[in-house]
Amino acid sequence: MKKIITVSRQFGSGGRSIAKLVAEELGYDYYDSELVQKVAEETGFDPSYIADAGEYAPGRSILSYALGSSGVHGATSHMSASDYLWTTQSRIITELAEKGNCVIVGRCADFILRDREDCLNVFIHASRDYKAKRIVELYGVRDKSPNKRLEEKDTKRAVNYKYFTGREWGATENYHVSLDSSKLGSELCVKIIAEIAKK
Amino acid sequence: MKKIITVSRQFGSGGRSIAKLVAEELGYDYYDSELVQKVAEETGFDPSYIADAGEYAPGRSILSYALGSSGVHGATSHMSASDYLWTTQSRIITELAEKGNCVIVGRCADFILRDREDCLNVFIHASRDYKAKRIVELYGVRDKSPNKRLEEKDTKRAVNYKYFTGREWGATENYHVSLDSSKLGSELCVKIIAEIAKK
Question: CB B183 to CB A176 under 8 A?
Answer without folding.
Answer: yes
